[in-house]
Write the structure tokens for this entry.
Amino acid sequence: MSIEFIGHVFPHEMSETIGRSGPVVQPDYLRALARAHEAAGFDRVLIPHSASMVDGFVLADQTLQATERLGVLLAHRPGFVAPTYAARSYATLDAFHPGRIALHVISGGDDADQARDGDWTDRAARYRRSGEFLQIAKREWASGPEPASHFDYEGEFYRVKDAWSTVVPAAGRIPIYFGGASADAVRVAAAEADVYALWGEPLEGVRSRIAQVQEAAAAHGRSLKFSVSLRPIVADTEAAAWERAHELLRVAEERTGANSQWRGFAKNEGSQRLLRFAEDAELHDRRLWTKLAEVTGAAGNSTALVGSHEQVAEALLDYVDVGATTLLIRGYEPYADAVAYGRVIELVRERLAARADAGAAAPAAVAG
């Protein structure tokens, strides 16, 4: 089977353990980080979104121009740009870089961050709005100058009349990834998304979440793919990886003690789930380490896989075995980790290819 790897780019080096140095936008760093991901074998990179971040569409364009085949998963928060306009923006990027742009919908799990952009709707309403946004975007991508493809839409949040677009995706639509751990998120994703994004929970948690979402999608006659987001901490040996992990933990504890911003997202369901798993145990399954999630308040995907390149590759394959089709991996040291993950990606793909070869050879062996 084919597994998609997604990384993470930003216009300056920063994480829960690294404070920003220099301007917010550092073009040379962004280009170098994008090229490091491409060289490491990533399929796409995520461009995140918050109410205080730089413009994602510009970052997406710069990332695509700096690379040759690397795709972009551009996060978008419905509610601030008309869905018809947003759909054309994605389609325009696709026209310049065919097949290399995807949409990641984040409806908004933090009320304070929503308020920074003037949005006072509650979470349930935000998910209903995301559903309408996606319905309109997909119709915009399927429209054209022919009057028969024009459309009207009237919903709770949006109303458009005689909408159509001169630019549409070459493939007919843009792949849709969807984030959110609540029941409202599941309902919208089941009906509208292509890929449902999960944070790095223990294997049994991921398995049960996938079953839950697939059951909801089946009610619409659909089946989704699944992304799992993890923060691998790798080194040449397991001992060295754990030494590095505990050093990252020490720095994170110092930083969060002085700055509470990393705890700002802890009210959303995804963060609460990670914190509950951290409370249950520091280490789950083969090597899922929750301590950094606990220290940072699970302000984003923050659970780590700790080990050698070979051990982390095996742990990632465990997630493939429970149903993941995309692995979103990003590091606490973004550039160095993007380079280091190249070996992990290579190992995962080698072992999947060996499995496929063994499966293809099995019937012939039986027949002989």
About this structure: The chain has one domain: 4-230+305-367.
